[in-house]
Amino acid sequence: MNKIIIVLLIGLFHNSAIAQKDFITKFEKSGGMETATYEEGIAYYKSLGDTFSEINVETYGETDSGNPLHLVTLSLDRDFDFESLRTKDKRIYLINNAIHPGEPDGVDASMMFLRDMVQNIEQYRTQLEKTVIAIIPFYNIGGVLNRNDFTRVNQNGPKEHGFRGNARNYDLNRDFIKNDTKNARTFAAIFQMLDPDIFVDTHVSNGADYPYVMTMDIAQKDKLGGVLEGYLEETMMPSLFEHMKNSDFEMIPYVNVFNESPDKGYSQFFDSPRYSAGYTALFHTIGFQSEPHMLKSYKDRVYATYAFLQGVLNVVSRDSELLKKLRDETKASVKTQKQFDISWKLDKSRHTELEFKGYEASTIDSKVTGQKRLFYDRSKPYKKTIPYYNHYVADVTVEKPDSYFIPKGWHTIVDRLKLNEIEFYQLERDSIIAVEVYYIEDYKTRTAPFEGHYMHYDVKVRKETERLDFSKGDYVVPVNQWRNRYIVETLEPHGMDSFFAWNFFDTILQRKEGYSPYVFEEIAAQLLKDDPKLKARFEKRKQADHEFAHSSKAQLDFIYMKSPYYEREHLRYPVFRSITKAESGIK
Fold first, then answer.
1. Which of 103, 127, 431, 493 lies at a 20 to 30 A Cα distance from 74?
2. Given 3.20.20.70, 3.40.140.10, 3.10.290.10, 3.40.630.10, which CATH number is that of 32-336?
3. Does the structure show a pLDDT above 80 at 15?
4. Count of CB atoms situated within 10 Å of the CB of 356
5. Residue whose C-alpha is closest to residue 133's, from 173, 80, 187
6. What is the DSSP code (8-state) at residue 173?
7. Per the confidence metrics, is the pTM higher than 0.90?
8. CA 259 to CA 42: how far, in whole Å?
9. pLDDT tens by residue, 471-492
10. Domain residue spans in the chain?
11. CA–CA separation, 556 and 256 (whole Å)
């Protein structure tokens, strides 16, 4: 009897300690004016983890700041092994905060969201039996530590916040595909370990003025394709919009309008794979970016973000079995998919009718410049139906190869494939293999730097079939994986966010050898004499092209580039496409 009393007393003391422990956030204590610092936020989650066994806090990898990323997981059955959780038919819901630390709304909303669930576990039991919630409290740690009160000039609070650039001044929401930063490489490892069903990246909007507190950058249905496209458009989105309206934070699709009024309509923001939601789409994870409106109070923005996180949880737990079925179907389908769209453009011929609430806009005289400026008159609200252009069509489509061959010298590419758990193997012996070879025919390059790169675009290629020498240890990437979309979109050079577009292959664009004209003159004459077909092409070009006919350099270049002396590596894209397993000689 005494032992039972002791056990009961220990239990009562433990529950009392939990009740007395202060889990009120800095945001709440400040009346919605302040956001947690990095140290305060991590300490808060560790305290939750120490108190509640359903919460686990782990560190992973590195970031450019020198600090690791934290992953906070809420698992009802206290299982924090994601491989094990998938066997238990759990849906994984990943939330990423402070990618832009000047937009910390998700930081404070997530702290309260997790606390409220674990402190009221019975109330949330039905949802948490089906869903595991994983939170990255601070993604851009370097930016979070660079705390200030000024850099978000368009934004209404909080009192202090972080800076958009990370410790190396990268915008991390442009780095998901190129992985220049340690942050992005660690995120990729976490993302692949979790294989989340749903992903939310928390932000704050820029752009136009309007009454809505919350807007949302929606995953692109055309990019998701197949059964996930229908589910997103017909089931998930209506549920989220209804939930937000019932939560007193009526939501609208992210207003992709800058320096003009949205009253004539607007287009959906295009999330290419450099962005978080564009990256997650490559792996058939439905991704969103919450975008509360910059001019609303910080308090309202945080609670709107909280409501959005709750709404996503509601839908994921409600549709748990359906969501698993659709993702499984998509993963199976993409393994055998024959064609892939690798570049997209807005379809202006179609739109969705959107009921939009806004403020009348006009141009008035600037008190600063004396020129005309945009002015939103909040005393003149309106409600009207406007076109929302949310359809995209592919403008480049490719047939997938059986495999890609990557010479082992291109280790920077192989490293990124490893990060994203792409399966490959290495040749066991030197081999001559028939492959399709791309030659870069034309491309344009940005004249201004963008996140450490001068990107290529409008890439044009010529495809040839050749038998090439490959060495033992060269890499073979079979295109029969559920991650095929990532493989194709990064390795096809004319993809809009391909590794070629991001300058990983720029060394092939520069010739390494040349000739002295006075030496090559004699060789060129002999080449024309020995090759009548070359001579005929040469003479035809001179007759057809006046500029060519009067340029000795152009003429010698023409002969040189068609001679055995011309380096084969110049403009030859060094990722090769196998034709078939039989033709390649690979078993």
1. 103
2. 3.40.630.10
3. no
4. 22
5. 80
6. G
7. yes
8. 38
9. 999 999 999 999 999 999 999 9
10. 32-336, 352-393, 394-511+569-584, 517-561
11. 51
